[in-house]
Write a structure and sequence with these properties.
It is built from 17 helices and 21 strands. The protein is an alpha/beta fold. Strand 8 and strand 9 form a beta hairpin. It binds flavin-adenine dinucleotide (FAD). Flavin-adenine dinucleotide (FAD) binds next to helix 1, strand 16, strand 20 and helix 17.
């Protein structure tokens, strides 16, 4: 069997297929495994420059760590912030912007008094089958809460726009609540939980690809881009490698664990309906700028914050900063004399932000950190990681689109798809999609 793509989806699929006794070859186009899970060195310290956490409230990530025999760690008690209306404020607790506690929302100062009053006067609205998260919350609680709370929260996960992202795909709980009745009433009844929301591996999520590969019992080829896929009498033929030296690999079954755009190209000939649907899924490009400072150069107050989000309405360049040194004890412990934080930039359709060179991205990050967090020191080192077309955009109707893709792919024996384009972009959801693909491709044998 062949798995195409060596991100977390492909690695999990390859490992599970090999564990069930099959011969598995994983083909990864880039020189390195891991996809959006990657570590790099800043000031000699190894930190994540891609994904840095996974949701702990879904089981797949934690269960996988347990299977691999590694412990998980949780963020410190440092609290998240939000830059709004000229100040860095506490991020009010909410379900994707729907506040659990209106008094806490008002006290945070994130919204104007009128914005809070509008949110408190929840309007009636019927959400229908699917609607954007922004339109759903906006119709009930007003535009200001969308602009200042929903946008930055969704922007942090999808690098997308609240008025485009599907509520059914991205926040199904919210849609279910809207169908049942008042969002505010139901949100206020959500019990405060002490269970940690996020988890990570000590040393970073960038360790996960190596852990999945080691002892996984499957063969890996990197720098092996799959350029074409064709059905044969007995299975599939993959064209691999540079156009000047193409090679054909035959396989009885194939799992495509690649992002939507390359998957669309690979399915173009034999599964054109799925290819057309996949080609219609947009993707946002983002960049992560990691900055290292001398510990004594940072204001003490920042050590109690895990970072902050920035709503697009504020018209700054960065959309978030994660104070990794305050959020993760393992980062803090790397070197007591050095602190590492990161900024993220780039939203769907706003690629111009990323057209600056690396020095330019560092410069705008520093300017925003100075204005919003009072960090005026020069960094001792920096690292810029660009992620082109990295985050699939779940537009309204995404779930139906995915159902159509799966119906077309399932009609092809020995073929399955998985990864961030389908059931969620977070690591646990991606692991879930890989396990679903393995079940589908082995069921048909
Ligand atoms: C900056 C950033 C931060 C994030 N932070 C978090 C976070 O904190 N928590 C979280 O849960 N999620 C986070 N995410 C999302 C999450 O990391 C991704 O959704 C997930 O890792 C995607 O895994 P994947 O295997 O589906 O795809 P990818 O990681 O994209 O892997 C796909 C692989 O396929 C390869 N490939 C593509 N085309 C071909 C081809 N033709 N032939 C061979 N190989 C090919 C690529 O090189 C790549 O290695 C973040 C994403 C980004 C970009």
């Amino acid at each position: 069997m062949v798995v195409v793509g060596g991100g977390v989806a492909g690695l999990v699929a390859a490992r599970d297929l090999a564990a069930s006794g099959r011969d598995v070859l994983l083909l990864e186009g880039s020189p390195e495994l891991g996809g959006k899970l990657r570590s790099a060195e800043v000031a000699g310290l190894t930190v994540d420059v891609g994904a840095e956490a996974m949701l702990a409230r879904r089981p797949e990530g934690i269960d996988l760590a347990r299977e691999l025999g590694v412990e998980v760690v949780h963020p410190t008690a440092a609290t998240s912030g939000l830059w709004s209306r000229g100040a860095l404020r506490d991020l009010p607790r909410s379900l994707m912007g729907v506040p659990f506690d209106l008094d806490q929302l008002a006290a945070s100062g994130v919204l104007s008094a009128e914005g809070v009053a509008r949110a408190a006067a929840e309007a009636a609205s019927e959400p229908g089958d699917d609607v954007s998260v922004g339109d759903l919350v906006g119709a009930r609680l007003g535009d200001e809460i969308v602009d200042r709370l929903v946008e930055p929260l969704l922007g942090g996960v999808y690098a997308g726009h609240a008025r485009h992202i599907s509520a059914a795909a991205a926040v199904p709980q919210l849609l279910a609540m809207a169908r049942r009745g008042s969002l505010l009433e139901q949100a206020s009844a959500v019990p405060a939980s002490v269970a940690p929301v996020f988890a990570a591996l000590p040393g970073g999520m960038g360790r996960l690809p190596g852990l999945l590969r080691d002892g996984g019992g499957f063969e890996v080829r990197t720098s092996a881009t799959v350029r074409a896929l064709r059905r044969t009498r007995s299975g599939w033929a993959l064209t691999v490698g540079p156009t000047t030296h193409p090679e054909t690999v035959e396989a009885a079954a194939v799992v495509l664990a690649t992002p939507a755009a390359p998957t669309a190209r690979l399915l173009g000939v034999d599964v054109p309906d799925a290819a057309a649907e996949l080609a219609a899924i947009g993707a946002a490009s983002v960049a992560v700028v990691s900055l290292a400072f001398r510990t004594e150069d940072l204001p003490d107050a920042l050590f109690e914050r895990s970072g902050f989000l920035v709503p697009p309405v504020e018209q700054r360049t960065i959309k978030a900063s994660t104070f990794s040194f305050a959020k993760w004890a393992w980062v803090r412990d790397l070197d007591p004399g050095v602190v590492v934080l990161r900024t993220s930039l780039g939203r769907h359709g706003e690629e111009a932000t990323l057209q600056a060179g690396d020095e330019g991205l560092v410069r705008v990050s520093l300017a925003d950190l100075s204005a919003m967090a009072g960090i005026t020191a020069r960094p001792v080192d920096s690292h810029v990681q660009r992620w082109g077309g990295a985050l699939p955009q779940y537009a309204v109707g995404h779930l139906d689109r995915v159902a159509r893709i799966r119906a077309a792919v399932d009609g092809q024996p020995g073929l399955a798809v998985c990864g961030a384009a389908y059931d969620g972009v977070g690591i646990p959801a991606v692991i879930g999609s890989a396990r679903r693909a393995v079940a589908s491709v082995t069921r048909a044998e």
